[in-house]
From TrEMBL:
One GO cellular component term noted in the UniProt record for this chain: plasma membrane
Main localisation: membrane
Keyword Coiled coil: no
Topology in the lipid bilayer: Multi-pass membrane protein
This protein's name: MFS transporter
Length: 387
């Protein structure tokens, strides 16, 4: 493969990073705008909760229905089509005159974002076989960065005549430009594959390895959602703090440097995949015992830092177990995250009834402890695939 200039080597990477950034952007922006959407359509808290669950449900079923399609028809086609669908979803949302039409737009948005999420990650894996482990840290950091920036844009748009719709208008314009750029960009590999990479691509999916990755993410994302959804209530209940929303922002903010650092330290992935859930479990246990607001902010920030390392390190092992079917395996992991988020978050209420907020957080810390032992097995299985 001839030597490529910096831009020709990284043009596809830039578009894939932007695609994932926009997924985090949409997630954070929708969460911030939901209150104002509810006010416009005169929705109760319960009805707003149903609107929030529409996106989560769409995110969960999309890879379940279309998970293997990208490996069959091509990742470029999938990315271009579903990025264009995101433009359509923005149009539906902007034209909505009632909550039902808005819900349709949000469902279409969640469905298409989920497809883009796993196909973009798989495309990065395929196009950059030499540096893909490092790029997994960068690509997951972009999601967190988008989730942090979007609420600021929502706050700004509320001061304009567009209100919360301004956020979705700007998103739609970016999606339109991204659709055109993806359509005009080639998806051929930008780096040569090593011989062991070529053999791995012909070996078929290593089901046991994929199952371990899915299990890690099932537990982790379930715990993450449990913490994020109930952190505000925990701080109000245990320390009479009304600033839990600041702690939540710190949690997401800490993920950005964590994931970039995982990218730079990708050669230590066999240690990081264990260290990340270990640190997260320890910090979550500490949080469950914390009753002072300032200390809680510090603990939550460090907790977010360790949590941020779980996803990128799991993704570095996708190509090792995918046998060339990177989109299929990434889709399976995406489904596991959706199921974990749904089941564990839904179970939090029962945990709270039995143990209270502090006890429920301690139970979640124990669940993360299970991830530690599962993560120890992953590097061993990867070594077997290299033989």
């Amino acid at each position: 493969m001839e030597s490529l200039s910096f831009w020709k080597r990284n043009d596809l990477s830039a578009l894939l990073l932007l695609s994932i950034f926009m997924n985090g952007f949409e997630t954070g922006g929708y969460q911030a705008a939901l209150l104002y959407v509810g006010q416009e359509f005169d929705l109760s808290i319960g009805q707003q909760g149903i609107l929030a669950s529409v996106q989560l449900f769409a995110t969960m079923i999309a890879p379940l229905l279309l998970g293997a399609l990208a490996d069959r028809i091509g990742k470029k086609i999938m990315l271009v089509v579903f990025t264009a669908v995101r433009v359509l979803s923005a149009a539906i949302i902007l034209l909505a005159t009632d909550s039902l039409v808005f819900a349709v737009g949000i469902f279409v948005l969640g469905f298409s974002c989920s497809i883009v999420q796993y196909v973009a990650i798989a495309s990065m894996q395929d196009a950059y076989p030499l540096t893909r482990n490092r790029r997994m840290g960068f690509i997951t950091a972009m999601f967190a960065l988008g989730a942090v920036i979007a609420p600021l844009l929502v706050g700004w748009s509320l001061s304009t005549r567009w209100g919360w719709q301004g956020f979705f208008l700007i998103s739609g314009i970016i999606f339109l430009a991204l659709t055109v750029l993806l359509a005009r960009t080639g998806f051929e590999p930008r780096e040569p594959a090593r011989e062991e990479e070529k053999r791995a691509a012909q070996s078929g999916i290593y089901v046991k390895g994929v199952a371990l990755l899915c299990f890690i993410m099932f537990i982790y994302v379930g715990v993450e959602n449990g913490v994020c959804f109930f952190l505000n209530n925990f701080m109000l209940d245990t320390m009479n703090s009304t600033r839990g929303y600041l702690a939540l922002s710190l949690f997401w903010l800490a993920m950005i440097p964590s994931r970039f650092l995982c990218g730079f330290l990708a050669k230590y992935r066999s240690r990081l995949i264990v260290a990340a859930p270990f640190g997260a479990a320890l910090l979550l246990a500490m949080l469950s015992l914390t009753s002072q607001e300032t200390l809680a902010f510090l603990v939550v920030f460090v907790l977010g830092f360790f949590c941020g390392g779980v996803y990128p390190n799991v993704l570095t092992y996708v190509a090792d177990f995918a046998g060339g079917k990177t989109a299929t395996v990434t889709a399976a992991i995406t489904v596991a995250t959706g199921v974990g988020a749904t089941i564990i978050s839904a179970s939090f209420g029962l945990l709270h009834d039995y143990f209270g907020f502090s006890g429920a957080f301690m139970v979640l810390a124990v669940l993360l402890g299970v991830d530690i032992f599962v993560a120890m097995l992953v590097p061993r299985l990867q070594q077997r695939t290299d033989r």
